């Protein structure tokens, strides 16, 4: 109801111009026909007024306006007629197709075409002359022409709306891809930071606690030496990662990433850090295949061993910590086992982020990983981490 009470500004202008023009033509005595039933000139003002009022409804109720307008046009044929009334009717036909329902937009052009054909055929049969053909042409110009124009404009508008929607969807998809890329990169950086720094910080925490709790100069000196070495190594790792991020910010595993060739040094460092906790770290490289591995596989295997040794330093009971590597043509196997149980001395609480990072790394490579307690043949309970990484060349996710 509000749309009927407040017509569009353009519709008000059209109605005003149409009414004013029709009144002007009536005043100067310009009519379009003579010899009608209602021959009084004032009679043509009634259809004119009705058609002007219907122009106010051309957007809000276009189909209703067209039906009433058709009746007003028929009534105008019984008067001397007005050119303004005829022109406003053509606008109502146009508006009914442009602003009406999709069904009306399909039906009106077809209906007006059939009406034009029927009128032309009827008048040719009634008065077979050029005048009959002229009446058909005028009928088509008044009805079918505006309907066809409205259909064309509507199609162009709908095409423009569809194009805007596709553009908006493209922008939305691009933004989603950007967010996913940023999230994936943040996850990768989080894994790298955790795996690089956690080992050193765990050793620093354990040995600093030991130095504070044991009142022995020799023990404190040894602990401080381990603390210093891990501090230096941690800073070097941080500088390396920051440098890589500054150089090539986002792309895959960095070219300077650690490889399995550096496991000996990693195991040696872990043995030195955990010696005071009663842990002995060994490396058993039983790989049958010795060919090169994809860089993402080597990085993932190295980080899995690194995180597993860090967890052993935090939680394992005194005893052996065994790192084992195996490789077939298709799979690289990484196993790290440590004695499960309580042990004396300082311990560092874990956050669980390391296991999450390991699972993410393996999942990105399409491999499998399991971590949990197991019982050895001699009855000793161990914590075993076992990962299987496919080694064939492929496109790895980040």
Helix and strand succession? HHHHHHHHHEHEEHEE
Percentage of β-strand residues: 5-15%
Number of helices: 11
Helix content: 55-70%
- Shape category: rod-shaped
CATH topology of the largest domain: Heat Shock Protein 90
CATH class of the largest domain: Alpha Beta
Strand order of the largest sheet: 1-2-3-5-4
Question: In the residues, how many domains can be counted?
Answer: 2
Structural class: alpha+beta
- Looking at CATH, the homologous superfamily of the largest domain is Histidine kinase-like ATPase, C-terminal domain
Q: How many strands appear in the DSSP assignment?
A: 5
Characterize the largest beta sheet: strand count, sense, and whether it forms a barrel.
Answer: 5 strands, mixed
CATH architecture call of the largest domain: 2-Layer Sandwich
Quick structural summary:
With 398 residues, the chain is an alpha+beta fold. Helices cover 64% and strands 11% of the residues.
Overall description:
The longest helix is centred in the middle third of the chain and has 84 residues, at 130-213. A five-stranded mixed β-sheet has the order 1-2-3-5-4. Helix 2 runs antiparallel to helix 5. Mean pLDDT is 82; it is low at 249-255. With 398 residues, the protein is of the alpha+beta class. The protein is rod-shaped. It has helices at residues 2-5, 9-28, 45-55, 62-76, 83-99, 102-126, 130-213, 217-248, 263-274, 295-315, 353-365, and strands spanning 279-285, 319-327, 331-339, 368-375, 381-390. Helices cover 64% and strands 11% of the residues. The chain has eleven helices and five strands, in the order H-H-H-H-H-H-H-H-H-E-H-E-E-H-E-E. The protein has two domains: 2-171, no CATH class; 172-390, Histidine kinase-like ATPase, C-terminal domain (Heat Shock Protein 90, 2-Layer Sandwich), CATH 3.30.565.10.
């Amino acid at each position: 109801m509000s749309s009927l009470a407040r017509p569009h500004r353009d519709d008000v202008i059209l109605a005003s111009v149409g009414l004013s023009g029709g009144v002007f033509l009536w005043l100067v005595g310009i009519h379009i026909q003579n010899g009608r039933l209602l021959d009084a000139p004032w009679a043509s003002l009634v259809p004119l007024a009705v058609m002007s009022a219907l122009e106010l409804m051309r957007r809000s109720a276009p189909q209703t306006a067209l039906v009433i307008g058709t009746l007003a046009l028929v009534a105008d044929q019984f008067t001397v007629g007005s050119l303004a009334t005829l022109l406003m009717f053509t606008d109502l036909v146009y508006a009914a197709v442009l602003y009406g329902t999709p069904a009306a937009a399909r039906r009106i052009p077809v209906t007006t075409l059939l009406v034009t054909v029927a009128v032309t055929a009827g008048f040719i049969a009634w008065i077979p002359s050029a005048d009959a053909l002229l009446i058909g042409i005028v009928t088509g110009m008044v009805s079918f022409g505006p309907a066809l124009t409205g259909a064309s404009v509507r199609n162009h508008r709908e095409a423009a709306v569809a194009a805007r929607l596709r553009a908006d969807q493209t922008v939305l998809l691009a933004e989603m891809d950007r967010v996913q890329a940023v999230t994936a990169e943040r996850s990768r950086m989080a894994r790298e930071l955790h795996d690089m720094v956690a080992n050193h910080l765990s050793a620093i925490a354990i040995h600093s606690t030991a130095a504070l709790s044991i009142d022995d100069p020799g023990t404190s000196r040894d602990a401080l030496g381990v603390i210093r070495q891990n501090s230096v190594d941690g800073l070097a790792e941080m500088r390396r990662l920051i440098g890589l991020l500054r150089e090539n910010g986002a792309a895959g595993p960095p070219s300077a990433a650690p490889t399995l060739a550096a496991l000996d040094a990693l195991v040696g460092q872990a043995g030195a850090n955990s010696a005071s906790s009663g842990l002995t770290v060994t490396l058993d490289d039983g790989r049958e295949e010795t060919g090169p591995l994809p860089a993402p596989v080597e990085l993932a295997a190295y980080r899995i061993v690194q995180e597993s040794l860090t967890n052993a330093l935090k939680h394992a009971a005194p005893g052996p910590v065994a790192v084992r590597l195996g490789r077939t043509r298709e799979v690289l196997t990484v196993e790290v086992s440590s004695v499960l149980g309580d042990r004396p001395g300082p311990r560092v609480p874990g956050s669980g982020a390391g296991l999450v990072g390991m699972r993410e790394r393996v999942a990105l490579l399409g491999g499998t990983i399991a971590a949990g307690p197991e019982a050895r043949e001699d009855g000793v309970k161990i914590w075993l981490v076992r990962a299987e990484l496919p080694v064939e060349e492929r496109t790895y996710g980040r």
